[in-house]
Amino acid sequence: MARVISVEMERFPIAGTFTISRGSKTEAEVITVTIADGGRSGRGECVPYKRYGETMEGVYAAIEAMRDHIAGGLGRIALLDAMPAGAARNAIDCALWDLEAKLTGTPVAAAIGVLPPKPLETAYTLSLAEPEAMAAQARANAARPLLKVKIGGDNDMARIRAVTQAAPNSRIILDANEGWTDETIEANLAFAAQHGITLIEQPLPAGRDEILGRIAHPVPICADESVHAAKDLDALVGLYDAVNIKLDKSGGLTEALRLRDRARDLGFGIMVGCMVGTSLAMAPAVLLAQDADFVDLDGPLLLARDREPGLLYQGSLVSPPDRGLWG
């Protein structure tokens, strides 16, 4: 019996508004893939991202175009050559992982060598706003051990000062989302170091970050938009200290595992991050992140409504997925 794939567009409201340097959103738009075979089914979720030229309609069409290949038994490894990295491949790849686990009875955690998986401490993200509003966000979440703070505007030093004063016991990651410039980066780095910042994510636009190889890094710098797949890593040596692996960029868990292992070989620190999605999107990432240096899998915490069943969050601690959810 041929495998059957179904594709669904879904929307989940965000609690309030989520703002980064490129704009704001009030809902998470996701695409869910289900692949059924022999009475069992596997699911995967992706989040199309405009920064990478993706739309809901385009990603949906890319998945639909693979219908006959999936029905014919296309596997995860062949999928890497059949589709480019990105959200569409991620949803299919994760659905195939889930289906394999259901058909074989072997959990994904065991298949990738992280059995038993453990709960992880995730960052919690604060939206970009004026310094006073960001201080209020930080104050409300000051009990969380790790905060990720969206910056990337003209007033970032004031934002850094406001947040670090409001949450003095939290470690803080700054995420500039490509919002700094060659002219501002050295002063901003020095200011961040003076205020005890732990990590700075993608300060400069991807492809326009050569200066990172010539300036001091008083705070470690992590690539996000600059890295999608393992093939991107060699060009980042000497520019970045760490890389942020996201399944929607790598095009699924299969490539993300390769990316993680290659990044370790090259000496990069590892962050495992996410788009704003539901627990179904986070579940494979929680397994990928078992030995990561930084975990940023707070997508469901930013939603007004998550899937049921979802991941268990206790404060900033996220537990591995139950097999009723994924894997």
From TrEMBL:
Annotated positions binding Mg(2+): D175, E201, D224
EC number from the UniProt entry: 5.1.1.-
Transmembrane segments: 266-289
GO molecular function, one term: metal ion binding
Active site: K150 (proton acceptor), K246 (proton acceptor)
Domain of life: Bacteria
Residues of the signal peptide: none
Enzyme's top EC category: isomerase
SMART domains per UniProt: MR_MLE
Cofactor(s) needed by this chain: Mg(2+)
Cofactor details (free text): Binds 1 Mg(2+) ion per subunit.
InterPro entries from the UniProt entry: DgoD-like, Dipeptide_epimerase, Enolase-like_C_sf, Enolase-like_N, Enolase_C-like, Mandelate_racemase_C, Mandelate_racemase_N_dom
Keyword set, alphabetical order: Isomerase, Magnesium, Membrane, Metal-binding, Transmembrane, Transmembrane helix
Limits of the Mandelate racemase/muconate lactonizing enzyme C-terminal domain: 131-222
UniProt xrefs under Pfam families: MR_MLE_C, MR_MLE_N
Family matches, as SUPFAM superfamilies: Enolase C-terminal domain-like, Enolase N-terminal domain-like
PANTHER family: D-GALACTONATE DEHYDRATASE-RELATED, ENOLASE SUPERFAMILY MEMBER DDB_G0284701
Family recorded in the similarity comment: Belongs to the mandelate racemase/muconate lactonizing enzyme family.
NCBIfam families from the UniProt entry: racemase_DgcA (NF042940)
UniProt-recorded name of the protein: Dipeptide epimerase
Organism of provenance: Mesorhizobium atlanticum
